[in-house]
Amino acid sequence: MVAGDTVREDVNDRPDEGPTGVLDTRERRQLDVIRRFGTVGALLLAVGSLGAGAAPVFNPVWRLPVLGIFSRMTTVSLTIAFIGVFMIVLAWLGLGRLAMPGRDRMVSLPQMARTLMMWTAPLVFTVPMFSKDVYSYLAQSEIAARGLDPYTVGPAEGLGLDDPLTDGVPTMWRDTPSPYGPAFIMVGRAINWVAGNHVVMGVALHRLLALVGFAMIVWALPRLARRFGINPVSALWLGAANPLVLFHLVVGIHNEALAIGLMLVGIELALARMPRCGPAGPFPPWQPGELLWYGIGAGVITLGAAVKIPAALALGFLGVMIARRLGGRWKHLFATAGALMVIFVGVLAIISFGSGLGFGWTTTLNTASSIKSWMAPMTALGFGAGGLGIMLGLGNHIDAAITVSRMVGTLLGPLLAAKLLLDSFRWRLRPMIGLGAAIGAVLVFGATVQPWYLLWAILPLAVAAGNIRFRTMATVVSAGLAVALPPTGSTFDGRTYQLPYAYAGAVLVVVIAVVLVRRHIPASTRPPRGARGAGNQPSSAAS
C-alpha cells in the first residue's frame, strides 16, 4: 500500500512541486570545493588519530619514524583530529544546501555517491576513535572461541588480565559479560580465528565488517526513499553522509553498522514485491513470490536483531505494512504478527543453538546500564532529583533517584512504541516514521544513551519523514553531537586542559579555512512552505 491523502499534514507535508534539475556550472564548482573540504578533513582526522585515537595499549606506530611523533604529541594530535571533525561537519552542512528539498537544482545521486566515497576512503585507515568498544568485541569473541560463555564471564575472568585482548578493554568493562547477540559473537569468533591475538589485524577485520554494514545502509537508503516518496539524494545525505555515521560506524567501528544495515536491507527485501495501492484499497491479487519475500525480509531483520536487539522493533512495523496489504483489519494484523513471530523465534533459535551460545544473551541486554550517562534523559533526571535533595538537606539519594527515573523510562519507552505501532496500523502516520520514532523513544528513554544510538532513529526517518522541520532538527542534533564527543574514547582524567586547547586551536584553523573558501559556500535556499523531501519522487509509499 502507499501513503495517501489520509495521512495528516502535520506528519507528512505536501510533496515538492516541479522537477529537480542538474547543478549549474557555479553550483558544480561549489560541490567540488565542498568535496575537497570534507576530504581534507577526513585526511586530517586520519592523521590526528595516530596520536588522539583510541589506539591499542601496544601502539604499533609508537616506534615508527614520523608516524610515532603524533603519539608523543597528544594535544597537537587532538587539535588536528578536531580540525578534521569540524571540516567534515561543515562540508556536510554545505552539501546539505545543495541537497535541500525544494531546490530547483539538486546534487544527483551519482554525485552524492562519489562525494560519500571521497569522504569515507581516508576514514577507513584511521585508528579507532570516539570509543574503545572494538576491543571489547575482540575480547568477548575470543572468550567464545575458547569454548567459554561470553554471557556469563567477562574478559578479565575469561582471558586473564595479562592477555593482550584484555589490555585494550576499558577497566569498567573487563568484568562484564557481552551484551551483543549470538550472530555478532559468531562472526567475531571467526575474526578471532583468523587474527588470533593480533589486535591490529582484529581491529582491521572488524572495520571490514562495519564497512559491510555501511554498504548495506548505502544500498538500502535510496531504494527505501523512492519507495516512501522521499528524494533518494536527500535521504542519502541525511543518512549515510551523516557525520554520526562516518565517525561512529566507519571510524568508531560500532556494530550498529551491521545491525542497522541488516534491518534496512530486510525491510527493502520484504517490500520488494509489495504493490502500491491506496490506503483503503482496492487490494490487488497476491504477486508471485510476495509471501516468500516477506519471509526473507523478516529473516534478514531477525539477523540484525541477533546482532543488536533494537532491530527487532522493525518486525512490528513491517507487520503493520503487511497487515494493511491484506486488508487492514485486526484479524490480518494478528495473523501477520503470528507468522512473523514464528520466523523471529525460529531464526533466533537456529542462530542461538547453532552457535553453541544458547539464549544466555537475552539476560545481558542491559549490561550498558551500569554506565550513568549524562546523555540519557532519565539518568540526567535522576541526577537532577538527587542533586536537588542534597541542596534541600535531604541527604544523598542520587543512586535511588536514578533507579526510579530509569524504571519510569523503561516503562515509558515501550508504551510510546506501542502507541506508535497502533497509530501506524490506523494509518495516522506512516509505519516507517513510526519505526524511527519508536526505536528513538525506546533508546532515548533507556538507561544509557550514546551519540550513535540516535542513528537507529535517524536512518529510518531519513527515508520516510521528509518535512523540513524534521530535517532541520536532525541536522542540528547530528552536527552538535558530532563535535561534542572527544575522539580518544577516554575521559581525560587528570589532563582536561588538553580539550580546551585542542578545541580553541581547531576552531581558529577552521575559521581561517572557511574564510578562504567563503566564496564557494552555497547560499541557503529556503524551500517553499510545506515542502518535504520528495523532490521529483511520487508522494506514495509502501505501508
TrEMBL record:
Belongs to the MptA/B family. Keywords: Glycosyltransferase, Membrane, Transferase, Transmembrane, Transmembrane helix. The keyword Glycosyltransferase applies. It is found in: Membrane. One of its GO terms (cellular component) is membrane. The lineage of its organism: Bacteria, Bacillati, Actinomycetota, Actinomycetes, Pseudonocardiales. GO terms for molecular function: glycosyltransferase activity. Residues 1-23 are annotated as: Disordered. InterPro entries: MptA/B-like. Coiled coil: none annotated. The chain crosses the membrane at residues 37-58, 78-100, 112-131, 199-221, 233-254, 291-321, 333-354, 374-394, 433-456, 468-487, 499-517. It is a multi-pass membrane protein. Residues 1-17 have a biased composition (Basic and acidic residues). It comes from the Bacteria. This is Alpha-1,6-mannosyltransferase.
